[in-house]
Every structure is written in C-alpha cells, then in structure tokens.
Amino acid sequence: MPTGFESLTSLGPVRAVFEDEGVQILPNFGTPVPSVLVRYHDGFAYRVQAMLARNRKDIHIWRWDEVATIESNIWRRRGQYGSSYAVAEYTLTKRAGEKVVLNDTMKESGGIAHIKEAVFALLEPPLAKRYEAGEALTFGPVTIHRQSGLELDQKNTPGTSSRMST
Hints:
Blueprint: E1 14-19, E2 36-40, E3 43-47, E4 60-63, E5 67-78, E6 84-94, E7 99-102, H1 104-108, H2 111-132, E8 137-139, E9 142-145, E10 149-152, E11 155-156
Antiparallel strand pairs: 1-2, 2-3, 3-4, 5-6, 6-7, 8-9, 9-10, 10-11
C-alpha cells in the first residue's frame, strides 16, 4: 500500500493499487494525471507526482457517486516497422467540476473497466428513467431521444429509427 493511503477507510476495502512507473520531471500544469491510484470498493484516491507529495493532504478522494462523466479519448500511434497501437486517456469529471485524467496504465490492468462499471451502475438508472420519460439525453456531441433517435452535433443521424429501445 502506498504511503498515506492506508488510513483511508471511508471508501471501504482496497480493491487494487496502480502506480505509474514513469518518471515525471516537470510538474503537470493541466488536468492532473495520477502517479499513484488506489481503487476502493466505494471510490478511488490518487496522488500526483509521488516524489513531491509527502503527506495525506496531497491525496485526492473520489467517491463513485461524485463522478458525473467519464470521457474516453482513444487514438492510434505509429510504432516501429509500420505497426501501430492504441493510446487511451480517460477524463473523469466530478459533479463540482474537478477533473482527473487516467491513462493507459489503468486500461491495461483492467482498472478503468472497474471504474466505468461502478460509475455506470449509479448513473444508468436515472438516465434510463429520463429516457423512458421522453427526455433527450446529451453526451458530448451526441444526443439520444426516444422519439427522434440519435443526433450528432444537433443533426439527425441517417439510419436511426424513430423509436429506440433501452
């Protein structure tokens, strides 16, 4: 268990620990990218730049019910000899607006799948209820509506049915 995380009991039992083995020389001036993340039953906690963060107040705590969105940004990068591979970043946003970026370290170890499942289990029931009631739901540039189907950038997408099932 990384130093400082052992006393976090409000999130339940520890499920997994993820540590980025890369060395970060310069500080991150944008959305934080954890160097250490501990996934618990009821959320996760992370620390940025473990070498600079020496005490508990540098640990950021996120409960599953605080996460409002998870955005996936996946692209291909060229490798050696004409090969290519996928690179992914996942931006999580709290209801209050705080953000954190999880990178491929989480994807490769299966951690992002567990985080998405836990958050989706809380977000899906109210969204399904709103959809069933006829409300349009917007996810970035995509809007889904029970009567009119899918829209991309406020334009109806060809080939979508006028009625969609959940």
